[in-house]
Amino acid sequence: MNAAVVTRFAPSPTGFLHIGGARTALFNWLYARGRGGKFLLRIEDTDRARSTPEATAAILSGLTWLGLDWDGEAVSQFEQAPRHAEVALEMLARGHAYKCFATQDEIEAFREAARAEGRSTLYQSPWRDADPATHPDLPHVIRLKAPRDGETVIEDAVQGRVVFRNDQLDDMVCLRSDGTPTYMLAVVVDDHDMGVTHVIRGDDHLNNAARQTQVYQAMGWDVPRFAHIPLIHGEDGKKLSKRHGALGVEDYQKMGYPAAAIRNYLARLGWSHGDDEFFSDAQAVEWFDLGGIGKAPARLDLKKLDHLTAQHFTAMDEGAALQELEAYLAATEAAPLTSRQREGVARAMGPLKEKARNFSQILERAHFVLTERPISPDEKAEKSLDAVSRRILGELTPHLQNASWERERLEAIVSDVAATHGLGLGKIAPSLRAALAGRAVSPSVFDMMLVLGRDETLARLSDAAAGG
Length: 468
What we know:
By secondary structure, this protein is mostly helical. It is 48% helix and 10% strand.
């Protein structure tokens, strides 16, 4: 039943939320949300030496920014350790696990001898079938008594039928000699206890699925549906690494990408729905299925991300765009907008987000409402304000004084004044832009005039006409 679908995202808190991890979280979120199920979050913090509260906070922050809400509280794997140990002891009592007293030196000696004789180095413990009466009172681990014959089969939703020969799998350690559980056991127990029905994760975990399946079978638990998704590669086709640039979700927020564009882009990394490239969250939730995931690694393509971002800005509600712009300023530790600036950006957001590919570009184009008179043109804009241009701006001002403040009328007045000097609109636009914004990059001059209003526009034009 759809209502029974439960997925999970289980990151290790040893650093930022990796872009590959974010895509895994997104796939799990989409699959659950599209079926009325639950999306759970588990922090796999059993590696106490490397796990940090800061990394956990970064993961939660990254997921929140992406808009991937999880059901219930985030679960700490470390805190479940007593339950993991309990399951190991239960397998021991059932005869599906055994105590192994072999030392590391003995295990290494076994492997050296196996290598010398050309045998498999897969460790076979002499304690597997030992009579408990012969057990010494010494430190020991608890190993899974894995089947030696036959096959363990994974019916993977992405990779298809994957077969592992059981004689190629060792009796994995479930409980260490200090009583702490291993990651491989903890994952299975947590997924079972959390009711996880679908394990959607990177294909670097595919080999783990065989051993984990054996734990499920030893406990008589239902095995979840596995879906192992290919990793993300850089544009050069190699595994994603620092040389490819931004790796963390927070980096993409600081680069000025809106969350909706990142969600859309990540959904398309390795998954497809026909030829659809640009789609909404609602469409992604409705369309997403495991059958649409390809087996080949996906490639990061920032040009495609830029293209998608421009489409998302066009579709984005202006209020939402302003909200995310302010979150971008906070993420980059830039000064927040004053109330005056916020009002100006809100009025201008329509033209500001046209053709923009990130929030940095929106801020650059917003300079005309962020600044105040007197406008100080930058070097490039200053070149458009020569003596002739300033004289034309001076002539233009009285014509605008009593004009109806509508785009068509404003365009007509500016065109007429330009024509009296034998100029086209395109020739006078740079000087108008320099006067109104002090920058060579801005929205159209008429958009700026409408946003600024009559009084502010005339004041800026008069300032520019009088200068120099």
